[in-house]
Every structure is written in C-alpha cells, then in structure tokens.
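Suppose you are handed only these lines of text.
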Amino acid sequence: MKRVLTIAGFDPSGRAGISADLKTFDDLGVEGVAAITALTAQNSTTVAATLPIEPKFVRKEIVTLLAEVGFDAIKIGMLGSSETVTMLARFLKKERIEKVVLDPVLRSTSGTWLIDKNGLEEIKKLLPLVHVVTPNIDEAGALTKKKIQNVTDMEEAAKTIHSLGVKFVLLKGGHLKGAPTDVLFNGKDFTHYSGTRLGGSKARFHGTGCILSAALCANLAKGVSVKKSTENARKYLTKVLKTRK
Ligand code: PXL
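From them, the structure of the protein bound to PXL can be written out as follows.
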C-alpha cells in the first residue's frame, strides 16, 4: 500500500484539515500519516481561534515518521505560521521528495486568516519544491497580486504562479460566478475541467480544498498522472459533497 503524509491543521468539525485528509486517503486506498501544524477551535461555519504548533515540534513529527518509512507523496495544507513554512522549505530541499501537493491555505471559507502576514511570501519560496499547487481564486489573487474574474484571468494567473517554480498549477474556479471551471497548467498547455455548481450552505463546502488536494495526492502516490489525478480527485469530491447537506 502506498503511504501518504499530510502536513496540515486540525479542524475539530472533521470537514477540513488533517481529519478530512486522512479520511480521503483511507477512502482512496492509500495509507495516511499526519503531522499537525496547528490546532483550531471551529465548527462547520466559524473559526473561533487557531493555535500554531511550534515549527520545531512539527519537524519532529515529520522526521520521526520518516525515520520509520518513506512517503510516496506529501500533501501540505494549513501551515499556521510563516516559520513553519520556512522549516518545511528547508526540509523539502534536503529530502527531495517528488510528489508534493501544496494547498496554499491562507484563509478559511469564513474569512479567518489561517497564517500570519509573512506567510504568503514564505509560501512563494516553497513553490520550486512542489509538484502541484492548488490555489483557489483568492489564493491565486494573493500570489499574483491580480484580480481574477474569469477563465482568461485564471490562465494568466496560472502562468504567473508557474513562473515561481512549481511544475503544475491547478487553479480552482469554484469562487467565480457561473459554471465552475478549474484550470490545470503544466508550463505549456492548459486543461480545463468544468462541472455543474452544487447548491447549499457554506458548511457544505467547508474543507473542499483539503479534500480535493488530498485526493489528488493519493492518486499521484498510486502513480496516476497529474491530469488524470485531477479528474479523479474532482469526481471523488463531488461524491463526498453529494453525501453532505
Ligand atoms: O479549508 C481551509 C482549511 C484548512 N485546514 C484547516 C482548516 C481550514 C478551514 O477552516 O480549518 C485545519
């Protein structure tokens, strides 16, 4: 069985973060292990508080797991502090793990910041060490300092983010109006994935970014291509959302 590490925060509601990642890994037939970067106090609609774990401790969590077995892929989610991002960049530079998926979490769906103000610049430094980055419209806007309003803007943003050194950019369009389209860019070609919009409360969509990137990572660990992994991850996410109110 392939083994996948998630480095992310803990959401006690179970819909996002570490618990969502581990459930996704389990569903997709890979063994999940986890390093917690932050605790949060939240329910499905509100983040009341966050408590980042010391970067040294996060590093200890990762190296202790690694001492026993390697990872076939790594998924990175909420990191909680820019110091943890810096620590992780150092770790990835040393270990050279190929299949790294980064969900560049900046804010919760409800708008609470999940990283400090230096986090964004530190996250940019992680990109050359990452295989696939999965920003949503807000995160891509922050990374490129541009307003993204349509698919053409998304393609421009994906090019800019790709130029920061990451191999694949999967820009998620769910936050734009109309039929949601995700754009994958490999430095040469664009692939568009379109779907139908599901209705429902904000709570229904809490953690969707986590689930998508975890499912993508599980597929990559199993040797599936990035294009096909994206397709499979989107299908898996739709299935999960259909079980939610
Ligand atoms: O969806 C972003 C996210 C990621 N990780 C954790 C979270 C959230 C949003 O609330 O709590 C732990």
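What can we learn from it? The longest strand covers residues 31-42. The mean pLDDT is 95.
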